[in-house]
Input
Amino acid sequence: SVESLPYTALTTSGRAAIFQALQQMQLPPQSVVLVPTYHCPTMVAPVLLASHKPAYFGIRTDGLPNLQSIGSAVTKQARAMLVSHYFGLAQSLHEVRAWCDANNIALIEDCAHCYFGQAGERPIGAWGDYCTASLSKFFPVPEAGLLGSAKHALHPILYLLRLVPKRLS
Output
């Protein structure tokens, strides 16, 4: 499972784990983050909250990224890519990992629907620079997430506090 990775930290949700993965990378503001066109808002919201710009890529019929759908100009600007294992079907991300490495793009492996198992030649969560998971989709908890990495030690997690202005009377 993703919790077996060498470096893990609990978060409040999978969405929070995506945000924390972006924070771990310490990307400059307004960095381009590649996001699949087939997504839920919880994949895009953390990118925006982290002050980055989403750029969208198509997916193939097998659910893997259609790397040819990403133009060269966007590829040159991209700093990170979010890739999902859709519908609990773990798949090898060998081709995606090689493409990201060749283009100096960090890979976030979204394991929101696939917490356990083998993804081709590696365990689930071990393809990305970081992986994220939504524990509430697998366990009887109201909310919980996980940020993990097979190769990067995690910096301390910084939590955002929403400051609500005092009501003036």
